[in-house]
Each structure stands twice: as C-alpha cells, then as structure tokens.
C-alpha cells in the first residue's frame, strides 16, 4: 500500500517564473547539496513521427515488450524522499490508448495525491480525447514547436522516417497539433512549447514565438540543439549565431509571456563581453528565466520496459542501476558521489544562480576548461 499521506509535503504554489520546481538550484539551495527531486519515466518507445533532431531517436521501435509492473514504479517513487516533480516521456507517450489509461493516468493521479508536480512530453498530434483525459491531473504539457509552416513540419518531423511521408498526412497532423494545443489551452491546460535553436530555426525564432502565442501556450521554452542521438550529424551552430538568435527573440517577444531558456552554453564565469551582456539581459528581462540543467543534478530517468535507471539524458552514460533491485535515491547518490564525470562539472556559484554546465555542453564548447576552478564574474 502506498504511503501517500506521509509524503504529502505539497508545494501548492502555482508554477510561475519565480517557482520552477524542475530547476535543480531550488533544492540545492534548500538542502545545501544536490538531491534527487525529479524522476522522468520513459513509458513508450513508439512514435508516429521521426524528427530530424529527436533526442531519443535511436531508441524508437515499431513494437515493444511488456512493461515492468506499475506497482514497482509507484513503490520506487514512494521511496524517493525529496521527490518534487515527475516527467513522463517517450516516444509519443499517448501513442497507445492503453498506456494512457493504465500507466499515464495512474502516474499523474499518484503525483497529484502526493502533491508533486507533473509534466508530459508529447507531440499533440493524436486525438484530442487522449489528451483531455490528462486535464484533471497534469501540471505541464510540454510540446516541441520549431515550425513556421506545415511544410517545415513535414520536413523536420519525418526526416528520419526511412521512407517518403505524404505531405498531406503531415499537414493534417500539423493542424491537429495546433488545434489540440489551442483547445487544451482554452480548457485550462498549461502548455509549454519548446523551440530549439539550431541551423534551421535560428533566424526565425520571432515568427515561431508568434505562432506559439497564437496557440495559447503559457510558456515558450528555448534550448539550443546539441549533437546527440538523431541530431548527431546535424550542423552545429556557432556561439555567435546562438547569441544573436536569443537577442532577436528577446527583441520581438511578448514580455507578458514566460520565456524559459535552458541548457545554455553561456556561463557567468566566461570572460567575454558578449556572454556577459547576454546574461545580464536575460536576468533583467521581465518573465524570463534561465533554468539550470537537471541532467545529472536532481533527476534520473527510468526506462519502464527494463527498469534501467539513467542519470543523464544527453551524455551517453550507460544505465547506472535498476529500479527492480535498488532504490532511486541510492542510485542517484552513487552517481553524485562517485562518478568521475559528475566531479568534472558539479560547480556552483550561488550569486549567479548557476550550478554548472551540462556534460554535453561542457564537452562540446569547453573541452579543456576546468569549471571547478572557475568562479562567476558576471553577476
Ligand atoms: S557554477 Fe560553474 S559554470 Fe556556473 S558560473 Fe560558476 S564556475 Fe561557471
């Protein structure tokens, strides 16, 4: 029997720019060290799309095995002492109705009963009824939106299909996604639309932003694309173009709408003037936040088919344990205290609100930099 009451230390604060429970710096400040507050669960490797940049593209399948029993997962969550958020991911988590009814809804009900926050990653291209079922429980519906037209969607969303996809099919899915997002927003769902900064989008972020607002989304998330998984062979954007893209978006955006930047490759300990100027601007803009990366800081991912537990999304570190035989807190502590890769990047400059770079970012742009010997200059 799950002991929900003992764990019911809810933070019923609304999710706003000043309350982002996914940011690892919140628990770092509260406990004086990193603790596991966030568990992501992969509930499917099926998807109706094959995006060019998919961060889990190599795991996608056409058919999948049985899952571990839901009770094992719920018991594992129940034992995470400081759990504050869960995220549900795929593939497209709603691909099978059965997954929605038998896995996703029960996980969301658990989260709500325990007073923790929930997020799901979806492409929103399936029937409205699948998403409507989540409305009573879900805190954040997270979607990807990198398009200015149905043609963009067709080109990007099926680039890795391995066969030609009829444009009309793709166009219908694009309009379904927009219609679903607008309808769910209207019904009160908090939709956070994420755009990547990459070689395709960097010059058209203001137009993408405008379309996201038209759908009624409550937050626009912006993350640079990194060369992982399907994105591995795509062109890497120079840092100067990335800075320019962010400034152009800040110039054009609606300041009433929350913009969340994440996984940025700009740090307060960098000496150059352009980075300092951008970081200062991000700090003073209204309704703009920069989230520290949860990867390896306050989050683990559980594969619900094997029970394997991963500590980072991006960096290709193999499973660090299994939920069938080890507690998630123990797995996370082992990573935190003993893994040499974590020791490379676990710096913290509180005045700058920074707790270090993502491993992949450090590897891509700062190969020879020892972050542990640096300190924030730009405050
Ligand atoms: S926490 Fe690390 S990355 Fe961030 S400013 Fe300090 S030294 Fe740089």
Automatic annotation (TrEMBL):
InterPro entries: Aldolase_TIM, rSAM, rSAM_sf, rSAM_YfkAB, YfkB. It comes from the Bacteria. Residues 31-256 form the Radical SAM core domain. One of its GO terms (molecular function) is catalytic activity. Keywords: 4Fe-4S, Iron, Iron-sulfur, Metal-binding, S-adenosyl-L-methionine. This is Radical SAM/CxCxxxxC motif protein YfkAB. It comes from Paenibacillus faecis.
């Amino acid at each position: 029997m799950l002991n929900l009451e003992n764990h019911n230390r809810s933070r019923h604060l609304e999710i706003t720019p000043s309350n982002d429970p996914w940011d690892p710096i919140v628990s770092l400040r509260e406990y004086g060290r990193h603790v596991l507050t966030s568990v992501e669960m992969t509930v499917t490797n099926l998807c109706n799309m094959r995006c060019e940049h998919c961060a889990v593209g190599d795991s996608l399948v056409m058919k999948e095995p049985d899952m571990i029993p839901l009770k094992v997962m719920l018991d594992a969550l129940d034992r995470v002492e400081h759990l504050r958020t869960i995220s549900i991911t795929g593939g497209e988590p709603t691909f099978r109705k059965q997954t929605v009814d038998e896995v996703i809804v029960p996980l969301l009900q658990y989260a709500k009963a325990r007073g923790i926050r929930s997020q799901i990653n979806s492409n929103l291209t399936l029937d409205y009824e699948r998403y409507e079922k989540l409305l009573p429980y879900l805190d954040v519906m997270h979607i990807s939106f990198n398009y200015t037209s149905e043609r963009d969607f067709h080109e990007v969303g099926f680039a890795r299909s391995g066969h030609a996809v009829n444009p009309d099919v793709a166009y219908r899915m694009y309009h379904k996604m927009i219609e679903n997002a607008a309808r769910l927003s209207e019904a009160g769902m908090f939709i956070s639309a994420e755009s990547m900064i990459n070689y395709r989008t960097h010059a058209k972020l203001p137009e993408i932003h405008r379309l996201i607002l038209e759908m009624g989304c409550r937050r626009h998330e912006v993350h640079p694309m990194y060369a992982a998984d399907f994105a591995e062979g795509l062109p890497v954007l120079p840092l100067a173009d990335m800075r320019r893209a962010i400034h152009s978006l800040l110039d054009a955006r609606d300041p009433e709408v929350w913009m969340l930047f994440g996984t940025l490759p700009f740090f307060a300990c960098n000496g150059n003037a352009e980075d300092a100027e951008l970081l200062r601007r991000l700090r003073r803009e209204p309704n703009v936040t920069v989230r520290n990366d949860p990867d390896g800081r306050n989050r683990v991912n559980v594969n619900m088919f094997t029970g394997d537990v991963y500590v980072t999304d991006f960096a290709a570190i193999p499973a660090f344990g299994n939920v069938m035989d080890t507690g998630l807190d123990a797995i996370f502590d082992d990573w935190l205290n003993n893994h040499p890769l974590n020791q490379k990047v676990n710096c913290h400059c509180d005045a700058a609100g920074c707790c270090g770079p993502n491993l992949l970012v450090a590897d891509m742009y700062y190969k020879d930099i020892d972050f542990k010997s640096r300190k924030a200059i730009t405050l």
